[in-house]
Design brief:
939 residues, mainly alpha, 43 helices, extended
Length: 939
């Protein structure tokens, strides 16, 4: 050693000072090292456990069970991290070994001072193994055997958690009340919190509130490191207060907690809970309170949207819209964009649905949607949804009949996004709206173009520029100009129609109108030249057309040479001859090319320019037929309304056919009221097969629309006019039901009695069933009219007996209805029967005690009356239960079944068993199972 120091010194002197460095320790896998030590300890402990006896064996076995459980947990974590389940040859094997060792300690060493630790280890390991029922038994055994153990609170918490998981609220309350007594336990706050929910589940909402408030109050005194549940308790208190109907108290408590960071959120939850429970008025009040107290809070926009939703649910939509308006007056909260739009769309869609059902509030809903759209567009003009909202607003304006506004809206949508999804539709809709503004173009009305005319021309020009419906749009501009006296411009446009497709029927009609324009101006020379030019175009029109225009050209040349030929009568006759020739020419052209749309427009143009009523009617009729054939239903309806409503065509041979087709067309577009009116007119004009069929449809539509008086008239007339029709009994049955709905029962009974004795078996059964309902209603009314006379004991007894007999007769009547199978009426009558039995029980309880009885006799008398009243209440419960059962069987859920369910629950509530569990006293005895050897236990 010393000589080594000398060598070092010599080297140091020669080379300078020497620096000694500590070598880096090798990296060690601590988890693997710990596992190695744990497995080594387990291997050493097993023979030591077998060799030991008494408490020493229990001590060593507890250590071994703990090590086995630790190894099982480590393996389980690895298995889960690898994405698999616990494996039988992995963690589960170690868990089972730990459970066997712990169970052996519990079974064979019940008096050992650390027995409660072994029992706790056994129960917790069973829980980790997923054996919840066995774990629950182990926890119960712990609290029975060692109720004063420091581990007893853990056991009570586990028992309570298990009871909550299995919806055993009574047992959960009992266990968690035990757990909550240990105020020093680290999980005391959790025990109180779970106790609150257990009481809630047991129906004791007030007790739940007390427990949650204890959680909050005890937070300040909780031991260091203890579990805190105050935020969760504050978050749940609102629901408890809402369910307990103690809203004002809840608001006072939540705002008085001194936790401003949580109070607003808790009040918002209270409002949300009230909203979910169908109490929107109270929810709205809480939201208003929040907004007044914290108008600048980050959640203020969300509260505003929720307030508006609650007001809508409370039937105050106008106030809801005012809320949005006030909130967006000074600042555009982005959070309100989507809720406001959703509400606007909801009102819009509701107005559409109500309009189809002819509801009274249609216009009010549409007005709300209109205001909401306008508010949205003012607040969010640059939003990505702006085009969609403008489109929806234009659609709504159209539905409200604001045609000009709708047209401008459609045009604005197109201008904002010419390539968007609504562009083409809006361009076409703008034209359609402009047509509405212009109205029908039926007569030559020379004069300056109106604003509506200019809009239509502009919208048609847009279609032409887009190459959409180019021929039709060009035709329409020419036709409008023609009827406004702009004949030169009209002729130019008609010439464009001819040039676009000279072989089409549109070109042929346009050529005729050009010639008509020239004839109207008496420009005979130009007319002759134009007609000759048309006749010289081989692709324009057919041979008939060319012959006709040749004749026109020849006559125009003659008139050009002799302008004074004939008088006004002569010229009218010549015009009529030409028009009727045109009618036949249109028919001939249609027969050749079958172009229904072109023929329809030609017929309509002929009807518009002629003054011959006898020619106008057939021309309009044929135009409507051809429009139908071309799929232009709206144009067909328009012309038929003109034919049917104009008295000049009242004697037309096609009037009934036009009336029938008009009714069918209105039915096809869901205008059922209009269809019914036309069908009734068809029947009034003649009771043939078509009229009778139309009357049946009218009756069905009137009934569906809720127009009971009109439906009754139609069904009655149908039954009289078509007594041999197989639907006649059904019509009578429906008329009887309408009479009942209109409170005209005597008439209904006469109809039903006649049906019950008729030959139609199905109608007779239905009539008899309705008569049974009448009898049951009468019996219940007779019972209700039987008053109780309590002036004397005899009078009381007599009237009670009479009332009981009347109720018995009513029950027989109700059961007859039930047996007949009428679902809705049976539910209603059973509900009334239950009310009657309950009223009878109340009458018994409220009847005075005979004054001649002593105090003891009076007590016995009241007890007897209570027993009889209870029996009557049982009859009421039976009736309401029958309502609930039949509602489920027939899937008929409504106000009657809901009412019966509430009344049954109020009379016989199903209470939870919230009595604390009575645990047996401690018995120091080894369980009756054969002891096993420790060598077998350790395997």
């Amino acid at each position: 050693m010393w000589w080594m120091l000398g060598v070092v010194a010599t080297v140091a002197a020669a080379e300078g000072p020497v620096r000694l460095t500590r070598p880096e320790p090798p990296e060690v896998d601590l988890a693997a090292a710990a596992e190695e030590l744990r497995l080594e300890a387990i291997a050493r402990l097993e023979p030591l456990v077998v060799a030991a006896t008494g408490d020493e064996r229990a001590e060593r076995a507890l250590r071994l069970a703990s090590l086995l459980a630790d190894e099982a947990r480590v393996l389980r974590m690895r298995e889960l991290a690898a994405g698999g389940d616990p494996r039988p040859d992995g963690s589960l094997r170690w868990t089972d070994r730990s459970i066997r060792v712990a169970r052996a300690i519990v079974d064979q060493h019940p008096r050992w001072e650390r027995w409660d630790e072994a029992a706790t280890l056994l129960a917790s390991t069973l829980e980790e193994a997923g054996k919840a029922a066995e774990a629950d038994e182990a926890w119960v055994a712990l609290v029975r055997a060692r109720p004063a153990s420091p581990h007893a609170t853990d056991a009570w918490i586990a028992i309570g958690q298990r009871a909550l998981d299995t919806s055993d609220a009574g047992r959960a309350v009992a266990a968690l009340e035990h757990a909550a007594r240990d105020t020093e336990h680290p999980r005391h706050a959790w025990a109180l919190y779970a106790l609150a929910w257990a009481r809630y589940g047991a129906g004791d909402v007030d007790g739940g509130i007390v427990a949650l408030r204890r959680v909050i109050a005890n937070t300040a005194n909780a031991p260091e490191g203890a579990l805190r549940m105050d935020q969760e308790a504050i978050g749940d208190l609102p629901r408890f207060y809402a369910d307990a109907d103690r809203v004002d108290e809840g608001i006072e408590v939540l705002t008085g907690l001194g936790r401003a960071d949580l109070a607003d959120a808790a009040l918002a939850r209270l409002a949300s809970a009230l909203d979910e429970q169908g109490r929107p008025s109270e929810a709205a009040a809480v939201y208003r309170r929040l907004l007044v107290a914290s108008p600048e809070a980050p959640d203020a926009p969300r509260w505003t949207a929720s307030l508006a939703g609650a007001l809508v649910a409370d039937g105050r939509p106008s106030e809801a819209l005012d809320v949005f308006t006030d909130a967006l007056a000074d600042q555009a909260w982005d959070e309100l964009e989507a809720p406001l739009l959703r509400q606007a769309l909801a009102w819009h869609e509701a107005s559409r649905q109500h309009r189809r059902g002819r509801a009274d509030d249609t216009e009010a809903l549409a007005g709300l949607a209109d205001r909401a759209y306008a508010l949205w567009m003012r607040a969010f003009p640059a939003s990505e949804e702006a085009v969609e909202v403008r489109y929806a607003a234009a659609e709504l304006a159209w539905e409200l009949g604001r045609i000009r506004e709708a047209r401008d809206g459609y045009a604005a949508v197109f201008e904002a996004d010419p390539m968007g999804p609504h562009a083409r539709f809006c361009a076409e809709s703008a034209v359609f709206a402009s047509r509405k503004l212009v109205g029908p173009i039926e007569r030559l009305t020379p004069g300056p173009l109106t604003e509506a005319d200019r809009l239509l021309l502009a919208d048609d020009e847009r279609l032409i520029a887009l190459d959409l419906h180019r021929v039709e749009a060009t035709w329409e501009t020419a036709y409008l100009l023609y009827h406004r006296g702009e004949l030169d411009r009209a002729a130019e446009r008609f010439a464009e129609v001819v040039a676009l497709d000279p072989r089409s029927r549109d070109a042929e009609v346009a050529a005729h109108l050009i010639l008509d324009a020239l004839a109207t101006q008496e420009r005979w020379a130009t007319l002759a030249q134009t007609a000759s030019a048309f006749a010289a175009q081989p692709e324009l029109g057919n041979a008939t057309f060319r012959r006709e225009v040749t004749t026109i050209g020849e006559r125009a040349s003659f008139r050009a040479a002799q302008p004074e030929l004939g008088n006004a009568t002569f010229r009218r006759e010549v015009t009529t001859i030409g028009e009727r020739a045109s009618f036949r020419a249109i028919e001939a052209s249609y027969g050749a090319d079958h172009d229904a749309h072109a023929a329809a427009r030609a017929f309509e143009a002929l009807a518009d320019r002629t003054t011959d009523v006898e020619l106008q009617g057939p021309a309009l009729h044929d135009a409507a037929m051809r429009y139908d054939e071309a799929g232009r239903w709206a144009d067909g309806l328009r012309l038929r309304e003109r034919l049917v409503d104009d008295p000049r065509y009242a004697s037309a041979a096609t009037r009934r056919e036009d009336l029938r087709l008009l009714g069918f067309g209105l039915e096809s577009i869901a205008d059922f009221a209009g269809a019914a009116t036309r069908y009734e007119a068809l029947f009034a004009g003649g009771g043939d097969a078509a009229g009778i069929e139309a009357l049946w449809s009218a009756a069905v539509f009137r009934h569906a629309l809720g127009q009971d008086e009109l439906a009754l008239v139609d069904y009655t007339r149908f039954a009289e006019a078509a007594s041999a029709d197989e639907r006649a009994p059904d019509a009578l049955l429906r008329s009887a039901r309408l009479l009942v709905a209109l409170d005209r029962r005597p008439e209904a009974e006469r109809v039903l009695t006649a049906l019950a004795h008729g030959h139609d078996e199905a109608a007779a059964e239905a009539a008899e069933a309705q008569l049974l309902v009448f009898r049951a209603d009468d019996a219940l009314a007779a019972y209700a009219a039987t008053a109780i006379d309590a002036r004397t004991e005899d009078a009381l007894r007599t009237t009670l007996q009479a009332r009981t007999l009347a109720l018995g007769r009513a029950e027989v009547g109700v059961q007859a209805v039930v047996a007949a199978g009428d679902g809705q009426e049976a539910l209603r009558l059973l509900d009334r029967l239950g009310d009657a039995w309950h009223a009878m029980a109340d009458a018994l309880r409220e009847a005075p005690v005979p004054s001649r009885l002593t105090e003891d006799q009076a007590r016995f008398y009241r007890d007897g009356v209570a027993d009889r009243a209870y029996a009557l209440d049982e009859r009421a419960v039976e009736a309401w239960s029958a309502v609930v059962r039949r509602s489920a069987e027939l899937s008929l859920y409504g106000s009657v079944s809901a009412s019966a369910l509430r009344k049954r629950a109020a009379l016989r509530p199903e209470a939870w068993d919230a009595v604390p569990e009575q645990l047996p006293s401690v018995v120091w005895a080894t369980p009756e199972r054969p002891p096993t050897t420790w060598a077998r236990t350790l395997r």
